[in-house]
Amino acid sequence: MGSKQFWSYLTKQGTFGSCKSFISPVPHLSFVQGDKGVSFLKERFDVLSKHHAFSDMEYTEDKAKMAEWMPLMMPGRSPDEVLAATRVMNGTDVNFGALTNQLLKHLTSAPDAQVKYCKRVTGLKRNANGWTVSIKDVKKKDACVKEIDEYYASSVRRGKVRNGAVYLAALGGAGALMAKSVQTLEVIAWPDLGCEAVRRLTVKDMPLTVILDAHGGDLYQSGPAAYLEAK
Protein backbone atom coordinates (compact mmCIF):
# COMPACT_ATOMS: atom_id res chain seq x y z
CA MET A 1 0.00 0.00 0.00
CA GLY A 2 2.85 2.38 0.86
CA SER A 3 4.54 1.69 -2.47
CA LYS A 4 1.36 2.49 -4.41
CA GLN A 5 1.04 5.80 -2.54
CA PHE A 6 4.67 6.63 -3.34
CA TRP A 7 4.24 5.85 -7.06
CA SER A 8 1.05 7.93 -7.10
CA TYR A 9 2.97 10.84 -5.55
CA LEU A 10 5.73 10.58 -8.18
CA THR A 11 3.16 10.51 -10.98
CA LYS A 12 1.50 13.66 -9.67
CA GLN A 13 4.88 15.47 -9.79
CA GLY A 14 4.67 15.28 -13.58
CA THR A 15 8.24 14.04 -14.27
CA PHE A 16 7.92 10.34 -13.42
CA GLY A 17 5.60 9.27 -16.23
CA SER A 18 2.52 7.08 -16.10
CA CYS A 19 2.05 4.24 -13.63
CA LYS A 20 0.16 2.33 -16.34
CA SER A 21 3.48 1.29 -17.86
CA PHE A 22 4.31 -1.02 -14.93
CA ILE A 23 1.21 -1.66 -12.79
CA SER A 24 -2.12 -3.25 -13.73
CA PRO A 25 -5.26 -4.00 -11.68
CA VAL A 26 -5.59 -7.75 -11.01
CA PRO A 27 -7.88 -9.43 -8.45
CA HIS A 28 -5.93 -11.21 -5.70
CA LEU A 29 -7.19 -14.67 -4.72
CA SER A 30 -6.34 -16.96 -1.80
CA PHE A 31 -7.44 -20.60 -2.08
CA VAL A 32 -7.26 -23.34 0.60
CA GLN A 33 -8.22 -26.99 0.99
CA GLY A 34 -9.17 -29.03 4.06
CA ASP A 35 -10.59 -28.09 7.45
CA LYS A 36 -7.29 -26.68 8.72
CA GLY A 37 -6.82 -24.46 5.67
CA VAL A 38 -10.43 -23.22 5.78
CA SER A 39 -10.12 -22.40 9.48
CA PHE A 40 -6.94 -20.42 8.84
CA LEU A 41 -8.38 -18.50 5.88
CA LYS A 42 -11.58 -17.64 7.75
CA GLU A 43 -9.60 -16.29 10.70
CA ARG A 44 -7.33 -14.35 8.31
CA PHE A 45 -10.36 -12.86 6.58
CA ASP A 46 -11.97 -11.84 9.87
CA VAL A 47 -8.81 -9.95 10.87
CA LEU A 48 -7.93 -8.34 7.52
CA SER A 49 -11.44 -7.29 6.53
CA LYS A 50 -11.57 -4.98 9.56
CA HIS A 51 -8.69 -2.94 8.10
CA HIS A 52 -9.66 -0.17 5.68
CA ALA A 53 -7.24 -1.47 3.05
CA PHE A 54 -9.07 -4.84 2.93
CA SER A 55 -12.63 -3.74 3.70
CA ASP A 56 -13.80 -5.01 0.28
CA MET A 57 -12.30 -8.49 0.72
CA GLU A 58 -14.77 -11.30 -0.01
CA TYR A 59 -14.83 -14.76 1.60
CA THR A 60 -16.68 -17.82 0.34
CA GLU A 61 -17.00 -21.57 0.82
CA ASP A 62 -19.55 -21.73 -2.01
CA LYS A 63 -18.10 -23.83 -4.85
CA ALA A 64 -20.31 -22.11 -7.44
CA LYS A 65 -18.88 -18.76 -6.39
CA MET A 66 -15.33 -20.16 -6.51
CA ALA A 67 -15.99 -21.49 -10.02
CA GLU A 68 -16.92 -17.94 -10.99
CA TRP A 69 -13.74 -16.55 -9.43
CA MET A 70 -11.34 -19.25 -10.68
CA PRO A 71 -12.94 -21.24 -13.51
CA LEU A 72 -9.81 -23.27 -14.37
CA MET A 73 -9.35 -24.63 -10.84
CA MET A 74 -12.80 -25.95 -10.01
CA PRO A 75 -13.91 -28.44 -12.71
CA GLY A 76 -13.63 -32.12 -11.72
CA ARG A 77 -13.44 -31.57 -7.97
CA SER A 78 -15.38 -33.76 -5.55
CA PRO A 79 -18.59 -32.19 -4.19
CA ASP A 80 -17.44 -33.22 -0.69
CA GLU A 81 -14.04 -31.49 -0.89
CA VAL A 82 -13.63 -28.84 1.80
CA LEU A 83 -12.59 -25.59 0.14
CA ALA A 84 -12.58 -21.86 0.77
CA ALA A 85 -11.32 -18.75 -0.99
CA THR A 86 -11.00 -15.01 -0.57
CA ARG A 87 -10.91 -12.33 -3.26
CA VAL A 88 -9.69 -8.74 -3.25
CA MET A 89 -10.65 -6.84 -6.39
CA ASN A 90 -8.19 -3.96 -5.90
CA GLY A 91 -5.10 -6.15 -6.18
CA THR A 92 -2.29 -5.27 -8.58
CA ASP A 93 0.29 -6.93 -10.81
CA VAL A 94 3.60 -5.07 -10.98
CA ASN A 95 6.21 -5.34 -13.73
CA PHE A 96 9.23 -4.60 -11.55
CA GLY A 97 11.60 -4.52 -14.52
CA ALA A 98 9.60 -1.74 -16.18
CA LEU A 99 9.26 0.01 -12.81
CA THR A 100 13.03 -0.08 -12.23
CA ASN A 101 13.75 1.31 -15.69
CA GLN A 102 11.22 4.10 -15.17
CA LEU A 103 12.66 4.99 -11.75
CA LEU A 104 16.20 5.09 -13.15
CA LYS A 105 15.09 7.24 -16.08
CA HIS A 106 13.36 9.58 -13.63
CA LEU A 107 16.48 9.84 -11.47
CA THR A 108 18.82 10.52 -14.40
CA SER A 109 16.66 13.49 -15.37
CA ALA A 110 17.02 15.07 -11.92
CA PRO A 111 19.69 17.83 -11.81
CA ASP A 112 21.14 16.74 -8.46
CA ALA A 113 21.09 12.94 -8.90
CA GLN A 114 23.53 10.44 -10.37
CA VAL A 115 22.90 6.84 -11.42
CA LYS A 116 25.93 4.52 -11.23
CA TYR A 117 25.87 0.92 -12.40
CA CYS A 118 27.97 -2.07 -11.26
CA LYS A 119 28.54 -0.40 -7.89
CA ARG A 120 27.95 -1.57 -4.32
CA VAL A 121 27.28 0.78 -1.42
CA THR A 122 29.86 0.03 1.28
CA GLY A 123 29.22 2.98 3.59
CA LEU A 124 26.70 5.70 4.37
CA LYS A 125 27.52 8.57 6.71
CA ARG A 126 25.71 11.81 7.51
CA ASN A 127 27.69 15.03 7.09
CA ALA A 128 26.95 18.74 7.43
CA ASN A 129 25.55 19.00 3.89
CA GLY A 130 23.66 15.71 3.71
CA TRP A 131 25.14 12.23 3.23
CA THR A 132 28.47 10.76 2.14
CA VAL A 133 28.11 7.49 0.22
CA SER A 134 31.03 5.09 -0.21
CA ILE A 135 30.82 2.79 -3.22
CA LYS A 136 32.84 -0.08 -4.68
CA ASP A 137 33.12 -1.23 -8.29
CA VAL A 138 31.89 -4.82 -8.51
CA LYS A 139 32.52 -5.53 -12.21
CA LYS A 140 35.43 -7.84 -11.47
CA LYS A 141 33.47 -9.77 -8.87
CA ASP A 142 30.47 -10.05 -11.22
CA ALA A 143 32.75 -11.62 -13.83
CA CYS A 144 33.95 -14.10 -11.20
CA VAL A 145 30.37 -15.00 -10.24
CA LYS A 146 29.48 -15.52 -13.91
CA GLU A 147 32.47 -17.84 -14.25
CA ILE A 148 31.32 -19.86 -11.22
CA ASP A 149 27.77 -20.09 -12.62
CA GLU A 150 29.11 -21.36 -15.95
CA TYR A 151 31.26 -23.95 -14.15
CA TYR A 152 28.25 -25.12 -12.13
CA ALA A 153 26.08 -25.41 -15.26
CA SER A 154 28.75 -27.47 -17.04
CA SER A 155 29.11 -29.78 -14.02
CA VAL A 156 25.35 -30.36 -14.03
CA ARG A 157 25.48 -31.26 -17.73
CA ARG A 158 28.33 -33.71 -17.08
CA GLY A 159 26.29 -35.28 -14.28
CA LYS A 160 23.35 -35.86 -16.61
CA VAL A 161 25.60 -37.63 -19.12
CA ARG A 162 27.34 -39.69 -16.44
CA ASN A 163 24.07 -40.90 -14.92
CA GLY A 164 22.01 -41.17 -18.09
CA ALA A 165 19.55 -38.59 -16.74
CA VAL A 166 17.66 -35.65 -18.20
CA TYR A 167 16.46 -32.30 -16.87
CA LEU A 168 12.86 -31.47 -17.71
CA ALA A 169 11.10 -28.11 -17.71
CA ALA A 170 7.36 -27.43 -17.60
CA LEU A 171 5.46 -24.55 -19.14
CA GLY A 172 5.58 -21.61 -16.74
CA GLY A 173 2.50 -19.65 -15.69
CA ALA A 174 0.00 -22.44 -16.31
CA GLY A 175 0.02 -24.30 -13.00
CA ALA A 176 -3.73 -24.92 -12.90
CA LEU A 177 -3.67 -26.62 -16.31
CA MET A 178 -0.48 -28.58 -15.55
CA ALA A 179 -2.02 -29.87 -12.30
CA LYS A 180 -4.59 -31.83 -14.31
CA SER A 181 -1.78 -34.15 -15.46
CA VAL A 182 -0.72 -35.03 -11.88
CA GLN A 183 -2.18 -38.36 -10.72
CA THR A 184 -0.37 -38.80 -7.39
CA LEU A 185 1.87 -36.60 -5.24
CA GLU A 186 4.09 -37.63 -2.31
CA VAL A 187 6.42 -35.49 -0.18
CA ILE A 188 9.71 -37.41 0.10
CA ALA A 189 12.05 -34.89 1.75
CA TRP A 190 12.07 -31.67 3.80
CA PRO A 191 8.31 -31.35 4.44
CA ASP A 192 8.98 -28.37 6.72
CA LEU A 193 9.86 -26.32 3.63
CA GLY A 194 6.22 -26.31 2.53
CA CYS A 195 5.93 -25.51 -1.17
CA GLU A 196 9.72 -25.97 -1.55
CA ALA A 197 9.66 -29.56 -0.21
CA VAL A 198 10.88 -32.35 -2.50
CA ARG A 199 7.96 -34.26 -4.00
CA ARG A 200 7.54 -37.40 -6.10
CA LEU A 201 4.84 -37.01 -8.76
CA THR A 202 3.10 -39.53 -10.98
CA VAL A 203 1.95 -37.73 -14.11
CA LYS A 204 0.11 -38.58 -17.31
CA ASP A 205 0.13 -36.62 -20.57
CA MET A 206 2.04 -33.72 -19.00
CA PRO A 207 3.72 -31.56 -21.68
CA LEU A 208 7.41 -31.29 -20.74
CA THR A 209 10.53 -30.12 -22.55
CA VAL A 210 13.93 -31.83 -22.27
CA ILE A 211 16.34 -29.02 -21.39
CA LEU A 212 19.46 -31.05 -20.50
CA ASP A 213 19.64 -34.40 -22.27
CA ALA A 214 21.74 -37.48 -21.48
CA HIS A 215 24.21 -36.65 -24.26
CA GLY A 216 25.31 -33.23 -23.01
CA GLY A 217 22.80 -31.17 -24.97
CA ASP A 218 21.58 -27.94 -23.39
CA LEU A 219 18.47 -26.33 -24.88
CA TYR A 220 19.10 -23.15 -22.89
CA GLN A 221 22.24 -22.72 -25.04
CA SER A 222 21.28 -24.35 -28.33
CA GLY A 223 17.77 -22.83 -28.44
CA PRO A 224 18.82 -19.15 -28.41
CA ALA A 225 21.73 -19.94 -30.76
CA ALA A 226 19.38 -21.57 -33.28
CA TYR A 227 16.97 -18.63 -33.01
CA LEU A 228 19.71 -16.09 -33.66
CA GLU A 229 21.00 -18.10 -36.60
CA ALA A 230 17.51 -18.32 -38.12
CA LYS A 231 17.15 -14.55 -37.89
What Rg is obtained from the alpha carbons, in whole angstroms?
25 Å
Give the N-terminus to C-terminus distance in angstroms. Answer: 44 Å
Q: Count of helical segments? A: 7
Structural class: alpha+beta
Mean pLDDT value: 85
Strand order, main sheet: write it out: 2-4-3
Can you tell me about this structure?
With 231 residues, this protein is of the alpha+beta class. It contains seven helices and eleven strands. It is extended, with a radius of gyration of 25 Å. The mean pLDDT is 85.
Q: What's a quick, concise take on this entry?
A:
Helices cover 38% and strands 26% of the residues. The protein is of the alpha+beta class and 231 residues long. The strands form five sheets. The protein has a three-stranded antiparallel beta sheet. A two-stranded antiparallel ribbon has the order 1-5.
List the helices and strands and how they pair.
Elements: H1 2-13, E1 23-25, E2 28-33, H2 34-48, E3 58-60, H3 63-69, E4 83-88, E5 92-94, H4 96-108, E6 119-127, E7 130-137, H5 139-163, E8 167-170, H6 175-178, E9 182-189, E10 198-203, E11 208-212, H7 219-230
Fill in the keyword field for this structure.
231 residues; three-stranded antiparallel beta sheet; alpha+beta; extended
